[in-house]
Description:
The protein has four domains: 283 residues, TIM Barrel, CATH 3.20.20.70; 29 residues, no CATH class; 59 residues; 133 residues, Alpha-isopropylmalate synthase LeuA, regulatory domain (Double Stranded RNA Binding Domain), CATH 3.30.160.270. The strands form three sheets. It has an eight-stranded parallel barrel, surrounded by nine helices. The protein has a four-stranded antiparallel β-sheet with strand order 9-10-11-15. α3 links the parallel β3 and β4. The protein has 17 helices and 15 strands. The protein is an alpha/beta fold. α1 packs parallel to α2, α1 packs antiparallel against α11 and α16 runs parallel beside α17. The C terminus is likely disordered. The site of zinc ion has 5 residues, from loops.
Amino acid sequence: MNTDYVRIFDTSLRDGEQAPGASMTSAEKLEVARALARLGVDVIEAGFPAASPDDLAAVKTIAAEVGQAPVSGRPQADPPVICGLARCTRGDIEAAWEGVRGARHPRIHTFLATSDIHMKHKLRMERPQVLARAVEGVALARSLCADVEFSPEDAGRSDPAFLYEILAAVIKAGATTLNIPDTVGYTLPDEFSALIAGIIANTPGAKDVVISVHCHNDLGLAVANSLAGIRAGARQAECTINGIGERAGNASLEELVMAIRTRGEKLGLRTGIDTRQLCRVSKLISRSTSYPIPPNKAIVGANAFAHESGIHQDGMIKNALTYEIMRPEDVGATQTTLVLGKHSGRNAFSKRLTELGFPLEGEVLARAFAAFKRLADRKKSVHDADLIALASDERSPVPELWTLEDLQVSCGTMGLATASVRLHGPDGASHVHAAIGAGPVDAVYKAIDALARFPVSLLEFNINAVTEGIDALGEVSVRVRHDDERSSHGHGADTDIIVASAKAYLAGLNQALARHGGIPSQHAQKSAASVDPAKAPA
Ligand code: KIV
Ligand code: ZN
């Protein structure tokens, strides 16, 4: 199996979603899965179906919608493999099969810990029991699905001799991919390389299956370890966009793919990823999880191609190769200015959005177009990044229970920050409230809280300019939590950052409300505090 092609297995929707607070709604997961398919990933790990009915439903939807149809713009003609994770139990494996069976290329990924520390303290099982359970699980998975991946969890700290034994046994039971996880991000590159080489050399049958690597980033070595494993013979790499995942995260897809591409001559390897989409998909994941992208993040950070020092700038002017090992356009980091102005038509607007991976239709397209017109009125030039921010705002997959109608703030050094907010409520009426706060955003959030009467605590607030310039769109993302439920996140963009902040908070609040099971009863009917829009103060 030692060709030069490295399969890219994206687990942003499974391991990535396990990052604290990174949970996505089913609609967001579907949007991410579509983007991953267009990016050209070979395998999408769509979730952990046994975790909850919602997770199962999300995996099923992805299998049906992304795992069936040929994906427009995808480098490979075929839809990607859709994979579901399962512990080595009948219930989990059957749930995983239920989740992925609707895909053209379904895969069940089952795992069981093999390190002494995990077997003793977590599983409370001896080696022979673990081996028997793994074989049983793989055989069951294989009776359901032709494509079965097995992972010996914590392989990085497992006894290699036991790994050879259990891996040989699961190959016999029908495993087609063996994934070797460095679950706790403990190994060093030379150790991980030796582990993979040892598995290939000493496991009967290993040369007939795909060997995969899955490295965590606790010591910042996930990409280095993945590359070391690939150079030792692995031909699948598991990774996540922006490196999101448990604790310090997983190997970052964009870093790994660009290392393989940029150092292609030395490595003699290739992937099927359309690298020009990397920045866009990175932004989508950041928005969907509300995990900001650090400016110095390799490949996709805002500064990844910025040159500040005079010496560097001088070199760049003379020849970009002096300080740039990759071209910004190769990772989609260039700011294309849309040659559309406020007189441009809806068709050109819609065509550009489709090219950018945001095919909008009907009412959503109409709303996005109206927002584009408003923006074009206020902003000199509209960039692709602005369009993406607008499109993702309008395409918000969260039910819009509360929406912003109007807002006015007064703030500064001469008095208390005050906000008047008018919202469209779930009862169909307008509701108005004014509040004071420590600053304008606080005042707006207090007014919204008073109207929605659904208390949430603000866990995180991030604000970024989408593009350069004083007239840039401000993009706000927030994470909120109601009681001790799962946290929800929201995102909003506007040239007015207070408006963007209000939109983001409302999106987070709406998601929290939807998670909670809908609107509190006091809003089911038009409430006494509501205002008839016709009679509302102007
Ligand atoms: O890190 C890990 O061990 C995992 C397995 C489930 C593959 O995520
Ligand atoms: Zn993992």
